[in-house]
Structures are given as structure tokens and as C-alpha cells.
């Protein structure tokens, strides 16, 4: 049997199937063997053909699938290409658009800067106009006094009534004197007055003018001095300092037409870096604080913002020049000091003057630095309630830095909402005077009712004695007076948290 037949047999049944054919061949049936072999070969080739057809069909379908895939791929590639191009285009137009918008914004900003500069210039001109107008107005009055008197003197001399000229001389001299006072106040405001600074004990200075103050204030106004023991000395022009206190006292008197109380308080204090940062122009260091508080009608913020402007006055013509506080401001600045004003309509005003400590003889003390020991422990939460944004931001920042959890609110209602929501509030730190009806004290009473064990620390712009003595708080409450420093706040908050409720 040929190799083909064997191969066919192998296909049909393997080596085992070819054995019987060989046996037939060997035993003498070669024809039968050959027939069988031919038959098996035919069967095999038929099977092979079918197999081949199947394979061909499969190959064809595979080929067409492959073809479809290839064209799909080509389409995808083309799409990707198109997208790529679009993206590139978008990128370039985007860059152009961004550049265009930037140019526009720059132009707008330049325009805005111009407008702002023009506005600042206009405001400066207005202030200058106000100032020159004020000076001109006052000087005209005074000059009228002088030149009018001179004219009258000439007439009287011509009339031979020489005996009468004495009083015109007096009038002219008085007007000239007032003019001198005016220029003096202007110089004070422009910080160009000649000062004679000397080491001064402010307690003694205040005591020295008490009599004068009593007389200026009249009978309906009570005067109280709260003078700190061991007050540091300052280096100022004593005469100008007295003048400044007198100006403040007279303003206070004018704000209390129906009587009231004037408190003058002195204390040593330290204005720290954080405070200096919050209120520019202040150099950190040791200061003596002199505060003058009244229980008068106070002033709205729009007035308080302008009181240091020369010739700004709310008093009727002839009753105020509007130079009093400008003079105080100029003097304090010229003496390297700082002045702050706290006022609430209907409640009163406190003006605080800070003058740097004079170190001439006393050895400089180290400023206390307890900060490290003053931090909050885990989770201790302070609720800060303060309507003045700057003060609130400052307080919150200090407390956060000290490690407390801090919640903040601008008024009593917001504070009560927070108290209702929060799981833990250890201390309420609130301004005494709050907007919107409820005062800090009422808020604190409510908080103590709602949160058993909560501690309370008040703050106020009023001098401590003014606020406690004028019946707004009970003596013995914890009160931190504004402006306070990092150190003040840290100490008071720690003490309040550690003390009994
Ligand atoms: N203690 C105060 N309480 C309420 N308002 C005040 C107080 N001090 C100053 N003011 C307001 O500030 C304005 C400016 O005060 P300033 O002392 O500069 O001028 P004046 O008192 O009006 O005039 P002058 O001091 O020249 O007599 C006052 O007109 C007043 O409106
Ligand atoms: Mg005044």
C-alpha cells in the first residue's frame, strides 16, 4: 500500500486501522485490500474537501471580519486625526482668546487705577478745600475784628475822640490772639508745632488739671479719675498734653448736655506685633494708655470716621471750630503715640491715647511672654461674638493660633444659633455692645442658661471703669478692654477657662 493510502488510513483510524489491510494483502487478498484502500482514500478525500471548504469559509469570514476591523481602524484613525487638529486649533484660539481677555482686563484695570487716582485726588482736593475754606472763613472773621477796629480807631482819632480808642485796641488784640490760637491748632494738626517733650508722670499731670477740668465740665458732670499705680512715665510736652485732655473733656461735656460722668483712666499696657500689624503706624512696645470716657450721646460711625479731620464739626456755627480732635491727633502722632476712638450712639464715647513709655531712668522691663503656656487644650472651643469685622478677625486668628477651636458670630442671634448647633462650647467671648437688640450681657445670660458650665469673657471699647461703674455690667465680671493685644487675649481667655464659672 502506498504512502497515500497509509496517510488516508491514518486520517480514518490511525496506524491501528492500516494493520488489517496489510494483513489482507499479506494473506493473499491484494485486490480486496486495494479496493478497501481506494474506498478509504475516497472517504478521506471527501472528508478533506468538506474540511477544506469549511476552513475556506471560515478563512473568508475571518478575512472579511479583518477587513471590517481594518476599515473601522482607519475610520478611527481619521477621526482621531480630525480631533487632534480641532484640539490644536482650539488651543491656539484659546491662547488668543486668553491673551485678548488679559489685554481687556489690563486695560480695565489701568482705567480703574486712573479713576481711583482721580477720586483720591478729588478727595484730597475736597479735604484741602475744606481746610483752606475753614482757615479762610475763620481768618476773615478775625481780620474783620482787627481791620474793623483799626478803621474805627482812625475815625475816632479824626473825630478827636481819642479817649474811646482803648476798647478798639482791645478788640483788635483779642482777634489777633484768637488768630494766633488758630494757627497754633493748625500747626498742631500738621504735626509741626514746636514741642518741648520732657519726662512726665501722667497721673500727676491729670491730678494737676483736675481743678480746671471741674470748672470746664460744670456741676452736672461727675469727674472720676482712675489712675494706675506705678504708672510708667512718658516723654511729652506737658502743656500740650494738658491741652489735649482739656479738648477731650470739653468734647465730652458737649456730648452730655444733661449731665453725666467723665472718667479719666491711666494704665500701663503693651501693644504687640499683632496689634501693630492690625493698626498700621503703631510700633509695638510699651505704652501708657490714657482714656477719656463719657456717658454722652456718642456718635454714629460716619461721624467717628471723620472727627480727626480739621474743621470737621457737628456743632452749630460759632460753637465749634472742628479743630479740637485734629489737634489731639496731631499732637499724639507727633509724640510717637497712637489714638483710638470707641463710640456708640446713645451710650457714650471713649477716646484712648497711647504714648510710648519713657525709658530714661527705669530699666526696661522684659515684656512678659507667657504665650507658650497659654494655648488651648484639645477641643476647647471659644465662641467669638463681635460686630466689628477687624476685631473679630484679629481675635479669631489669635485664638486659632493658640490652638482653640473657634466659632464666630456677628451678633447675638447668630451666636445663639451656633450654640444650638454645636456640641461643645467652653467659652463665650462677646462684645458688651452688640447690634440688633440683644446686648452681650443678655446673650451671656441666655448662653449660661442653655450651656451649663459655659464661661464668659466680655470685651468692650469703653474703659473698664466707665462700663462697670455706669451700670452696664456687674462688678467682678471678666472684661477685656479694647484694644487688646495677643498677650492680653491669650491670658484672659486662659484665665476665664481655668477660673470658676
Ligand atoms: N465725646 C464726644 N461725644 C460725641 N461726639 C464727639 C465727641 N468728641 C467729638 N465729637 C464729635 O466730633 C466732632 C469734632 O470734634 P472736635 O473736637 O474736633 O471739634 P469740635 O468740638 O466740634 O470743635 P472745637 O473742638 O474746635 O470746639 C464734634 O463736632 C462732635 O461731633
Ligand atoms: Mg472739640
From TrEMBL:
Keywords, sorted A to Z: Coiled coil, Phosphoprotein
UniProt GO molecular function: phosphorelay sensor kinase activity
InterPro entries per UniProt: CheY-like_superfamily, HATPase_C_sf, HATPase_dom, His_kinase_dom, HisK_dim/P_dom, HisK_dim/P_sf, Sig_transdc_His_kin-like_C, Sig_transdc_resp-reg_receiver
Domain of life: Bacteria
Entry coiled-coil feature ranges: 66-125
4-aspartylphosphate PTM positions: 431
Domain Response regulatory as annotated: residue spans: 381-497
Organism: Siccirubricoccus deserti
Pfam family, one: Response_reg
Catalytic activity from the UniProt record: ATP + protein L-histidine = ADP + protein N-phospho-L-histidine
The protein's name: histidine kinase
Record-linked Gene3D superfamilies: 1.10.287.130, 3.40.50.2300, Histidine kinase-like ATPase, C-terminal domain
Amino acid at each position: 500500500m502506498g504512502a497515500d493510502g497509509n496517510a488516508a488510513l491514518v486520517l480514518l483510524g490511525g496506524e491501528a486501522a492500516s494493520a488489517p489491510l496489510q494483513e489482507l494483502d499479506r494473506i493473499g487478498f491484494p485486490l480486496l485490500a486495494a479496493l478497501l484502500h481506494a474506498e478509504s482514500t475516497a472517504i478521506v478525500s471527501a472528508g478533506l474537501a468538506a474540511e477544506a471548504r469549511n476552513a475556506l469559509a471560515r478563512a473568508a469570514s475571518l478575512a472579511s471580519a479583518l477587513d471590517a476591523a481594518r476599515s473601522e481602524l482607519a475610520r478611527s484613525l481619521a477621526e482621531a486625526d480630525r480631533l487632534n487638529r480641532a484640539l490644536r486649533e482650539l488651543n491656539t484660539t484659546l491662547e488668543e482668546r486668553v491673551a485678548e481677555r488679559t489685554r481687556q482686563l489690563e486695560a480695565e484695570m489701568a482705567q480703574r487705577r486712573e479713576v481711583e487716582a482721580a477720586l483720591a485726588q478729588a478727595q484730597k482736593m475736597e479735604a484741602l478745600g475744606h481746610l483752606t475754606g475753614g482757615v479762610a472763613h475763620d481768618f476773615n472773621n478775625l481780620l474783620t475784628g482787627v481791620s474793623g477796629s483799626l478803621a474805627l480807631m482812625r475815625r475816632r482819632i479824626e473825630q478827636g475822640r481819642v479817649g474811646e480808642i482803648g476798647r478798639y485796641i482791645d478788640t483788635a488784640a483779642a482777634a489777633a490772639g484768637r488768630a494766633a490760637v488758630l494757627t497754633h491748632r493748625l500747626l498742631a494738626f500738621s504735626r509741626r508745632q514746636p514741642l518741648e517733650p520732657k519726662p512726665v508722670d501722667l497721673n500727676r499731670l491729670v491730678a494737676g488739671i483736675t481743678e480746671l477740668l471741674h470748672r470746664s465740665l460744670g456741676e452736672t458732670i461727675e469727674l472720676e479719675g482712675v489712675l494706675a499705680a506705678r504708672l510708667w512715665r512718658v516723654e511729652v510736652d506737658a502743656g500740650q498734653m494738658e491741652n489735649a485732655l482739656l479738648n477731650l473733656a470739653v468734647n465730652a461735656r458737649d456730648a452730655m448736655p444733661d449731665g453725666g460722668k467723665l472718667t479719666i483712666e491711666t494704665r500701663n499696657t503693651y501693644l504687640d506685633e499683632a496689634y501693630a500689624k492690625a493698626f498700621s503706624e503703631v510700633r509695638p512696645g510699651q505704652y501708657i494708655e490714657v482714656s477719656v470716657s463719657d456717658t454722652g450721646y456718642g456718635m454714629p460711625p460716619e461721624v467717628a470716621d471723620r472727627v480727626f479731620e480739621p474743621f470737621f464739626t457737628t456743632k452749630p456755627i460759632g460753637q465749634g471750630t472742628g479743630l479740637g480732635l485734629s489737634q489731639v491727633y496731631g499732637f499724639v502722632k507727633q509724640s510717637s503715640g497712637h489714638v483710638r476712638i470707641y463710640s456708640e450712639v446713645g451710650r457714650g464715647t471713649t477716646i484712648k491715647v497711647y504714648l510710648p513709655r519713657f525709658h530714661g531712668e527705669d530699666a526696661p522691663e522684659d515684656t512678659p511672654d507667657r504665650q507658650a503656656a497659654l494655648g488651648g487644650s484639645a477641643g476647647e472651643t471659644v465662641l467669638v461674638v463681635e460686630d466689628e469685622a477687624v476685631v473679630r478677625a484679629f481675635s479669631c486668628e489669635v485664638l486659632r493660633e493658640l490652638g482653640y477651636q473657634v466659632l464666630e458670630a456677628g451678633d447675638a442671634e447668630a451666636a445663639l444659633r451656633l450654640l444650638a448647633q454645636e456640641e461643645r462650647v467652653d467659652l463665650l467671648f462677646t462684645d458688651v455692645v452688640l447690634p440688633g437688640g440683644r446686648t452681650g450681657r443678655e446673650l451671656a445670660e441666655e448662653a449660661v442658661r442653655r450651656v451649663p458650665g459655659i464661661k464668659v469673657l466680655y470685651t468692650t471699647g469703653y474703659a473698664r471703669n466707665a462700663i462697670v461703674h455706669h451700670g452696664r455690667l456687674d462688678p467682678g465680671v471678666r472684661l477685656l478692654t479694647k484694644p487688646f493685644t495677643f498677650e492680653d487675649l491669650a491670658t484672659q481667655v486662659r484665665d476665664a477657662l481655668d477660673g470658676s464659672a
